[in-house]
Amino acid sequence: xxxxxxxxxxxxxxxxxxxxxxxxxxxxxxxxxxxxxxxxxxxxxxxxxxxxxxxxxxxxxxxxxxxxxx
Length: 70
Known about the structure:
This protein is an all-beta fold. It has strands spanning about 1-5, 10-15, 20, 30-35, 35-45, 50, 55-60, 65-70. The N and C termini lie close together (about 10 Å).
């Protein structure tokens, strides 16, 4: 699945093919990085970011990310 940022809703969304799925703070998923699937969770402070192995990583709003929902 693809995760993308919606400017109008100011949230990250997952394209499920049917209806959009809006992610909430603390929600877990796996981020696909090459052949790796990294468990992470999404959070919000001054902006949206993910936590992977206790490391905070910023999300780029104009990029799409491949993910797997838990």
